[in-house]
Design goal:
This protein is α/β, with parallel strands linked by helices. Helices cover about 40% and strands about 15% of the residues. Strands 1-7-6-5-4-2-3 form a 7-stranded mixed β-sheet, with helices on both faces. A hairpin with a 7-residue loop joins strand 8 and strand 9 (about 395-400). The N and C termini lie far apart (about 65 Å).
Length: about 475
C-alpha cells in the first residue's frame, strides 16, 4: 500500500496565495459600497455543505472558492449599510495581522517572548487612547470573557479565598443598570453568586443608571449583611447607547468601598474622542474597564481587552501551580493572569491598526459614525411618519413607523416587526427590530468606518420606501 501524501505536499503555496490575494481584493472592493441585494447560496454549494466528512484529500482551489461563496452569502458587518448590531469595520490591517498571527500561531498561555511586549504595548495604547490609568490588563475572546475576568477579580477582592472555598454561605451581590448587557448576568452566574444576586438598578429619563437608587441598594444590602462585590456601569448600552453617569457612580462606589467596573465593550473607545469624552467623565476612577476593539475600533473578532487600574488582582483571581508549567517567580505566564489557557495574539490586529491608521484617524472615524446617528435622528424627527424613541448618545438610533397612527398598540408593534423583516429581505440595508419600553421598533447602529453620509441618506430612503409600501 502506498504512503498517503504529506499534508505539505497538498497545497501549491504560490498558487493558493495568488488566489487568496485575488479573493481578498475582491472582498475589500465589495465592502466599499452597498450592494443592491445580498446574494444567495447556490444549490450546488448547498448540497456540498450537506455532505459528510471527507476521507480523501480535496482540491484546495475549489475549497477556497467554496469558502468565498459561503462568506459572500453571509451577513458581514464590513458592509457599509450593515446597521443591525454592534459590528466592526473589518479593517484591512486586521486581515493582514490575522493572517500572520494565524501563520505563526503564538500561544500567550505560556511565556511567548516578543509577542508579550507587543500585547502589553497595545494595552498601554488603548489605555492612553481612552484616558484610563492602566496597571494591568489582558486581551480576551470577547466582552463576555472580559466582563467575567473583571468580576472574578472583584469577587476575590470582596470575598478573599472564594476561588478556593466558594462563597461559604456568604451572601453577595453585583449591581448594574436595567439595560446592562446580559454578559453581566452570565458572569454573575459563572462566578457562583447566582443571577438572584444581580441587582438591576432603575434607569432615568436618559436611560442611565439612577445613582440614588444605586446608593439605596448598596445601603440596604450592607444593612442586611450582603457583601457588595462590584458595581457595573455601562458606557454605551447595547439597546440605545446610553452612558451611565460614571463620575457619580464612582463617588458612590468610593463611599461604599466597592469595586467599580465599566463595561465599555461598545462605547468605551468614544472616551478618546474630544467631542464625546465629557460624557465619559469618571471612567478613569474605575477599578476595571472592558473594551471590545472588534466593535468601535474597527478590527475583526475576536479582539477584546480588560484593563485594571492596579496590578495584582488578576494574579489573585487566576494564578495557580501546575507541574507541567513553571509559574511566577521563575517564568511569567499569561495563564496566571487570565481565565483562558490557549490564547492567540489577539492584540496583533489592533496594534497594526494603530500603527497604520494612527489614533487621530480612529478618533475621526468614531466621531463620524456618531454624527451619522445624529443626522438620522434629525431626519426622523422632521418626518411625521416616524417616532424617534431615543436621542442618540453615541451611534444608536431607535425609532418606529407610526403607520398613519390608526393602529392599536399591538398592531403597531406587529407592523414595525414586519417592516424590519421587509427591510432585511429587501437586502439593500441590514437592520434589526428591538424593543424600547415595551414598544417594538427599528434599531440602527452606525459602527462602520466605510459608511458615508450619502449612505445614511440611502438607508433612510430605503426605510421610507418600504414603510410606504407596507
Amino acid at each position: 500500500m502506498s504512503e498517503p501524501p504529506h499534508p505539505l505536499d497538498l497545497i501549491d503555496r504560490e498558487r493558493v496565495l495568488q488566489l487568496l490575494t485575488e479573493h481578498l481584493s475582491s472582498a475589500w472592493t465589495s465592502f466599499d459600497s452597498a450592494r443592491p441585494k445580498e446574494p444567495q447560496l447556490d444549490q450546488a454549494l448547498f448540497v456540498r455543505l450537506s455532505e459528510g466528512l471527507p476521507a480523501a484529500p480535496g482540491d484546495p482551489e475549489a475549497s477556497l472558492e467554496d469558502i468565498v461563496s459561503v462568506l459572500d452569502a453571509s451577513v458581514s458587518p464590513s458592509r457599509p449599510l450593515y446597521s443591525a448590531y454592534i459590528g466592526s469595520t473589518g479593517l484591512e490591517a486586521g486581515v493582514l495581522a490575522g493572517a500572520l498571527g494565524n501563520a505563526y500561531d503564538v500561544n500567550l498561555a505560556a511565556a511567548a517572548g516578543a509577542a508579550e511586549m507587543l500585547e502589553n504595548q497595545t494595552i498601554r495604547w488603548v489605555a492612553e487612547f481612552v484616558g484610563y490609568p492602566v496597571g494591568d490588563g489582558a486581551f480576551t475572546s470577547g466582552g463576555m470573557t472580559s466582563n467575567l475576568t473583571a468580576l472574578t477579580a472583584a469577587r476575590e477582592q470582596a470575598l478573599p479565598g472564594s476561588r478556593y472555598d466558594g462563597l461559604s454561605g456568604r451572601p453577595a451581590a453585583v449591581y448594574c443598570s436595567e439595560e446592562s448587557h446580559h454578559s453581566v448576568a452570565r458572569a454573575v452566574e459563572v462566578i457562583g453568586l447566582g443571577s438572584q444576586a444581580l441587582r438591576r438598578i432603575p434607569i432615568d429619563a436618559e436611560r442611565r443608571m439612577r445613582v440614588d437608587a444605586l446608593a439605596d441598594a448598596l445601603a440596604a444590602d450592607r444593612a442586611a449583611g450582603v457583601v457588595p462585590v462590584a458595581v457595573v456601569a455601562t458606557s454605551g448600552t447595547t439597546l440605545t447607547g446610553a452612558i451611565d453617569p460614571l463620575a457619580e457612580v464612582a463617588d458612590v462606589c468610593a463611599e461604599y468601598d466597592v469595586w467599580m467596573h465599566v463595561d465599555g465593550a461598545y462605547g468605551g473607545p468614544a472616551a478618546g474622542v474630544p467631542s464625546l469624552a465629557p460624557r465619559f467623565r469618571g471612567i478613569e476612577q474605575a477599578q476595571s474597564l472592558t473594551i471590545d476593539a472588534h466593535k468601535w475600533l474597527g478590527v475583526q473578532k475576536s479582539c477584546s481587552l480588560v484593563m485594571l487600574a492596579n496590578s495584582g488582582p488578576l494574579e489573585s483571581a487566576f494564578a495557580h501551580d501546575e507541574r507541567y508549567m513553571l509559574h511566577a517567580g521563575v517564568a511569567a505566564n499569561g495563564v496566571d493572569r487570565t481565565l483562558e489557557y490557549s490564547r492567540p495574539v489577539r492584540s496583533l490586529k489592533l496594534w497594526l491598526a494603530f500603527r497604520i491608521y494612527g489614533a487621530d484617524m480612529l478618533r475621526r472615524w468614531i466621531e463620524m459614525t456618531a454624527e451619522h446617528a445624529r443626522t438620522l435622528a434629525d431626519a426622523l424627527r422632521a418626518n411625521p411618519r416616524f417616532e424617534l424613541l431615543n436621542e442618540p448618545s453615541l451611534s444608536v438610533v431607535c425609532f418606529r413607523d407610526r403607520a398613519g397612527g390608526d393602529m392599536s398598540v399591538a398592531e403597531l408593534d406587529e407592523h414595525n416587526l414586519q417592516l424590519a423583516r421587509a427591510i432585511t429581505d429587501d437586502g439593500r440595508v441590514y437592520l434589526a427590530p428591538a424593543q424600547v419600553d415595551g414598544m417594538t421598533c427599528l434599531r440602527v447602529c452606525f459602527m462602520n468606518f466605510r459608511t458615508t453620509a450619502e449612505q445614511v441618506s440611502e438607508l433612510l430612503h430605503v426605510i421610507e420606501e418600504l414603510a410606504g409600501a407596507g
